[in-house]
């Protein structure tokens, strides 16, 4: 691991929830590829994808030089720790400093939604792909396909992040992105419900006025 990875992710990571942080250099060790996993416990697509990624890592990832680092979008420590307990990999620690790192990473990799899985070269911090989530989903539980995906990542010529061309695969788009946004910002749901109720009440009043006018015309 190089200083570029430490500059990108910070000096320390967590190996398990509630444990002290450890130097990122020793935690990543001799890994070939680091997968940055942008996820959160409140996100339904994330909860569906996490078991797929876990199986992928446990079946072929670890022995093939793949290391995952969880980048959480949970807003409170308890939610973060409960979700991270289900993951057999590393995580950026919770805290204000990590929030700054997360925001920097989201801007750097143009994260538009979660879950998102970014592959970077563990040796130099260069960009490989932001379509790793689709690759993992496509491989499913097929051992041969998983190995093919890993070899594909290793065969891609990594480029400096500032020179990378990002795809549209980093997180859900369209309706999926809207759903994730609303789950992440529930206050907007209450606003939508409020205006929906006001609109319904207005339409009901309009209907009553129409009925009254119709009755008056008949008289």
What is the secondary structure topology, with strand pairs?
Blueprint: H1 3-9, E1 12-13, E2 22-23, H2 24-28, E3 33-39, H3 44-61, E4 66-72, H4 77-84, E5 90-91, H5 96-108, E6 116-121, E7 127-129, H6 132-139, H7 143-155, H8 175-184, H9 187-218
Parallel strand pairs: 3-4, 4-5
Antiparallel strand pairs: 1-2, 3-6, 6-7
Helix pairs in contact: 3-7, 6-7
CATH architecture of the largest domain: 3-Layer(aba) Sandwich
Give the class from helix and strand content and strand pairing.
alpha/beta
Tally of structural domains: 2
Largest sheet at a glance? 5 strands, mixed
Return the CATH class of the largest domain: Alpha Beta
Give the helix proportion (percent range). 40-55%
Strand line-up across the major sheet: 5-4-3-6-7
Estimated radius of gyration? 23 Å
Count of individual beta strands: 7
Amino-to-carboxy terminus distance: 88 Å
CATH fold group of the largest domain:
Glutaredoxin
Could you give me the name of the CATH homologous superfamily of the largest domain? Answer: Glutaredoxin
Roughly what is the average pLDDT, rounded to an integer?
85
